[in-house]
Design a protein that fits this description.
- With about 350 residues, this protein is an alpha/beta fold.
- The protein folds into 2 domains: about 220 residues, Rossmann fold (3-Layer(aba) Sandwich), CATH 3.40.50; about 80 residues, no CATH class.
- About 40% of the residues lie in helices and about 20% in strands.
- It has 13 helices and 11 strands.
- A 6-stranded mixed sheet has the order 7-8-9-3-10-11, sandwiched between helices.
- Helix 4 runs parallel beside helix 8 and helix 8 runs parallel beside helix 9.
- It is globular.
- The C terminus is likely disordered.
- This is Branched-chain amino acid transport system ATP-binding protein.
């Protein structure tokens, strides 16, 4: 299958034109349980893509496959660094048996073949979890510095440069501090940089965790229920942060979220799962009005879904007919039944 994901539940969109991530025919089985069944979708470059569905739909399983916690039973997970990478180059990598390949435009990674630490380090995929996992005893600033540990270790020559405080290490350390302060400013926590992370309110801890992930310079940021437990003000601040990450940092976002207000306000693209299968895929407006999505959330029967779809089609046809009749009237014709009979 090409980068364009085409099926009968998908609305075509720009996410198909230059995807940063392609999940292709993904299946995940646990013994006899099929948690995810033949799932395909794209995450557009520079988009916020929401993965939604009822509890138990398979959303977190998909995240675990993308980030390397699980190895999928079947399917490919393709990460692209570069907007002009062709399907032929992806096929070449697949046939080579390798995990990654450099191209003229950047690089390609097959995440299902990579260990989790390589997905984070090399493919530049960062993740947060449902439960906050900050280092509570460390300061707010230190939590952002620890995310840059690999860069600091490399700059220190794996300790020797740090021991002797060599110029290369000093430069890298200052760069790490500057990056941490940059993100503290954008999450409005610069004034609390020296406080323990555990002392922050819940909403601030959520934003700090996202800022820590951003300190790794990810191309794809995966957020697992970032709005869980937030009050309306904190949800609004989260929305602002995610929109900044998309527009200013240029990072693509894939999020799992149950707060439909957050999803519909900030998402460019929504993918809906139910019992491990994709039931809808498109813009927020497309998904919001999809009878299958409404049925999945309200728990109605398949027959009712078919009836709702038929009613929607009939209503659309009636609206089109009415618009056509109105157009004829505006063009100078008289409605049928009201024309005068000329002698």
């Amino acid at each position: 299958m090409s980068a364009s994901i085409k099926d009968n539940v998908s609305e075509p969109g720009r996410w198909d034109e230059s995807p940063v991530l392609t999940v292709e025919n993904l299946t995940m089985r646990f013994g006899g349980l099929v948690a995810v069944d033949d799932l395909s979708f794209n995450v557009g470059r520079g988009d916020i893509t929401a993965l939604i569905g009822p509890n138990g739909a398979g959303k977190t399983t998909v995240f675990n496959c993308v980030t390397g916690f699980y190895k999928p039973t079947e399917g490919r997970i393709i990460m692209r660094h570069g907007s002009a990478i062709s399907d032929a180059e992806v096929r070449k990598l697949t046939e080579s048996g390798e995990q990654s390949m450099s191209t003229a435009e950047g690089a390609i990674f097959l995440l299902e073949r990579m260990p989790d630490f390589c997905i984070s380090r090399d493919a530049k995929v960062a993740r947060t979890f449902q439960n906050i996992r900050l280092f509570g005893g460390m300061t707010v600033l230190e939590n952002l510095l620890v995310a840059q540990h690999n860069a600091l270790m490399a700059a220190s020559g794996f300790t020797i440069g740090g021991i002797f405080n060599l110029p290369g290490f000093r430069k890298a350390r200052q760069k790490s501090i500057d990056k941490a302060v940059y993100w503290l400013e954008h999450i409005r926590l610069k004034e609390r940089a020296d406080e323990p992370a555990a002392a922050l309110p819940y909403g601030d801890q959520r934003r700090l965790e996202i800022a820590r992930a951003m300190c790794t310079d990810p191309q794809l940021l995966c957020l697992d229920e970032p709005a869980a437990g937030l009050n309306p003000r904190e949800s609004s601040e989260l929305n602002e942060l995610l929109q900044f990450i998309r527009s200013e940092a240029g990072t693509s976002v894939l999020l799992i979220e149950h707060d439909m207000g957050v999803v519909m306000e900030i998402s460019d693209h929504v993918v809906v799962l139910d019992y491990g299968e994709k039931i809808s895929d498109g813009s927020a407006d497309y998904v919001r009005n999809d009878p299958s999505v409404i049925a999945a959330y309200l728990g109605v029967e398949d027959e009712e879904v078919a009836e709702a779809e038929a009613e929607a089609a009939a209503a659309a046809a009636a609206a089109a007919a009415a618009a056509s009749a109105a157009g004829q009237t505006m063009s100078g014709g008289e409605p049928a039944g009201e024309q005068e009979t000329k002698p």
